[in-house]
From TrEMBL:
One of its GO terms (molecular function) is G protein-coupled GABA receptor activity. SUPFAM superfamilies: Complement control module/SCR domain, Periplasmic binding protein-like I. Residues 811-820 have a biased composition (Basic and acidic residues). One of its GO terms (cellular component) is postsynaptic membrane. Belongs to the G-protein coupled receptor 3 family. GABA-B receptor subfamily. This is Gamma-aminobutyric acid type B receptor subunit 1. Keywords: Cell membrane, Coiled coil, Disulfide bond, G-protein coupled receptor, Glycoprotein, Membrane, Phosphoprotein, Postsynaptic cell membrane, Receptor, Signal, Synapse, Transducer, Transmembrane, Transmembrane helix. Residues 890-901 have a biased composition (Low complexity). The lineage of its organism: Eukaryota, Metazoa, Chordata, Craniata, Vertebrata. Residues 793-809, 857-874, 914-923 have a biased composition (Polar residues). Residues 1-20 form the signal peptide.
Amino acid sequence: MAAWLLFLIALYILPSPVVPIHNSSAGGCAIIRPPRDGGIRYRGLTQEQILPVDYEIEYICRGNRVIVGPKVRKCLPNGTWTDMSLHSRCCKSFYRIELPNLYIGALFPMSGGWPGGQACMPSAQMALDLVNNRSDILPDYELELIHYDSMCDPGEATKLLYDLLYTEPLKIVLMPGCSGVSTLVAEAARMWNLIVLSYGSSSPALSNRQRFPTFFRTHPSATLHNPTRVQLFQKWKWTRIATIQQTTEVFTSTLDDLEERVKEAGIEISVRQSFLTDPAVAVKNLKRQDARIIVGLFYETEARKVFCEVFKEKLYGKKYVWFLIGWYADNWFKIKDPAINCTVENMTEAVEGHVTTEIVMLNPETVRGVSNMTSQEFIAALMSRLGGMNPEETGGFQEAPLAFDAVWALALALNKTVAPLKGRGRRLEDFNYNNHDITSEIYRALNTSSFEGVSGQVVFDAQGSRMAMTLIEQLQGGSYKKIGYYDSSQKNLSWFGNDVWIGAGPPADRTVVIEEYRFLSQKLFAAVSVFAGLGILLGILCLTFNIYNGNVRYIQNSQPYLNNMTAVGCMMALAAVFPLGIDGHHVHRSQFPVVCQFRLWLLGLGFSLAYGSMFTKIWWVHTLFTKKEEKKEKKKQHLEPWKLYATVGVLLAIDFLSLVIWQIVDPLHITEGWTLTFPSTSPQMRHITNPDLVLPAGVVYGYKGLLLLLGIFLAYETKSVSTEKINDHRAVGMAIYNVAVLCLITAPVTMILSSQQDASFAFASLAIVFSAYITLVVLFVPKMRRLITRGEWQSEQQDTLKTGSSTNNNDEEKSRQLERENRELQKIIQEKEERVSALRNQLAERQALRNRHRPSIGQNQNHNAPPPSSQTDPKSLLPPPGYPTTDNHSLPPSFSNSSSLYPADSKMSRNHCHNSQIPLLYK
């Protein structure tokens, strides 16, 4: 029985005696692992063994320790143990039963943004028990831990710090956890001459020795992540990153250090976002600004909020890589959080593939350190203390080795100060808040610490921060996989090569810019060139026709010289289509500026000639013929051609001078075209242009646009005007409508489509071609049709040769018009005469028929009729003026004696047939 009990006690390897507690419901007595001081505490205790009634437990101590209190306890039937009111404990010396205690004031965050105290407090207690059981470390002292829950809140920590400092007993060292709490404690501790040793603070701001002169930490600074991050950026060839941080000092200072390091490495931080509690806006801004490689700095609770928004914005997948802090719990994204409205599946999908950088907090090698434990043995012992709690759901489980080594670092430093203090007649128990000497000794001992702990080699730098290696992990299939280590002190990257990506490899850090020269479609260029060439031939035909028929009055009344300018301008504009489509297929790169200048001059001067001549016509028609009625007579003056030519000359001079100034001040030069290829199915393009061209191009477009709008207005105002001075102004107005509409539509469209070379060329060139075709057809085809169908050019030319008059003589024009009207009247008279002759014949036949039936009556009438000469005026029988007086058109002999054909009692005989009725036959 006794042997079995000894085996049971040895199995648990108790650093201090066990304490029985009441457990009547179990039908026996339960034993538990008690706290170091042997006090009975029920909260947080875990049942390990139920012993039956009458069992006895004998307490033993390891090493040179002795039992103080009852050595044997017996399980009673009521479920309690004997001597429950007395405590049993071990003491270090056979001769000194009561040892002086050195108190450590600790703040463990059991909740809050980082609930690291859940695993760090049991780890620190485990280290404290081991130290107190060692006879070679502080043999004359007992270390005792007095701790509170800071909830990782600086405000709560302020109140707890007051309790630690102003309540007995005195604390020789303070051990805070979170960075925010450590900042507060370390800044205040200097006023009480207290050393601060943190196990879970990573804020880079704590490395400031002027601000925190007595601060040490076994948790490396968060800036230790940054060299690893920079190394990974360079490994994967990323030169552009983005950041999002929670607005706390630890993350702000970490990000400032990262910004300096990436700047030295030639890496750009393109987007920098921050948030306090709600990351929704910050995540949206990351997506809006095309962030691809994103470094996230926030606590675990905020990380769930961030990635819930990441899922909503689709800011994950093969195009994105997130870098997070590695000290979250392994299943942090699976923990149900009422602060977010995303499912576990949503979160798992959003976080897949992210990379974490984590300080190596557990020695990967199997080495027994100063605690005589390997890292694997430490984890097993910690799991036993946690009593079956899931490590993935226990806050601070990864930092637990740091808390363990922090207690050992403190114990070794205190042990190192015993001899120097003894030489000066001082002891550690003499410490008070006004004693600077003991604090200085502890500071020197900690500053020179170097030992092998369960987290690796423990060494502090000049700022009191821990030096360590960095572990690189990647979330693959919902679990973290180690993909490498980085030693920043040696600048050595150990890479396993097992990184996994959703795409073919690491994504690009931005839109991939591939430089390439884009060429115009040669089929499109050839087709448009054929149309332009045919248009030039049409322009030559129209120009030849206009020059050849320049003596025809109808052509002269259309101001042929202005029409000639229009034809020449259209041909120049059509010729500009060819240099518009010339690219690297046709000329060398160095010749592009010359081609651009040639195209600009052809198009500019061609527009001035073609549109300027039409605008001049419509302008003068509006000036002369759209005035008020009382002013019309004054305005009906002869239109002098030099005024028309001067107007065209002014418009042409304006364009010429603007082109010359443009050529001298800011000549055209080559602009680059870029094609942007995204890892998507719809590539986008970007066209990089010269910003210096915006101002002159805007001035030219503005001037031409106003001229087009004014032309439309003038054409509308003169649509009902009819004049012989410019007889084709309505056709000119129609051409202006078409040209203006095409230009006003094409100009903005080509600017929008400037990155699409084929579409831009097609719009611009076809607008030029159609404008030229419409102008030539509208102005010249009606003239050709008129002269061909009426044959006017032959008669007009013959008449001009006969008269020998000037084409611009106003009297000659009137004479020709009268002659034309005379000829038309003669044709009408001849038609009427033919009708009169037919009627006379009918009358003669009827009279002859009557004479045969009534001969006597006819003779009496003839004797009684008055003589023709006395009743009829011979002049009334003559043809009307202008009627040819030839023999063929002379009156028949019977017409002069026609009055004898009608009977005496007829209406004509009664009215004596007045000679005024004869001209009625010609109406």
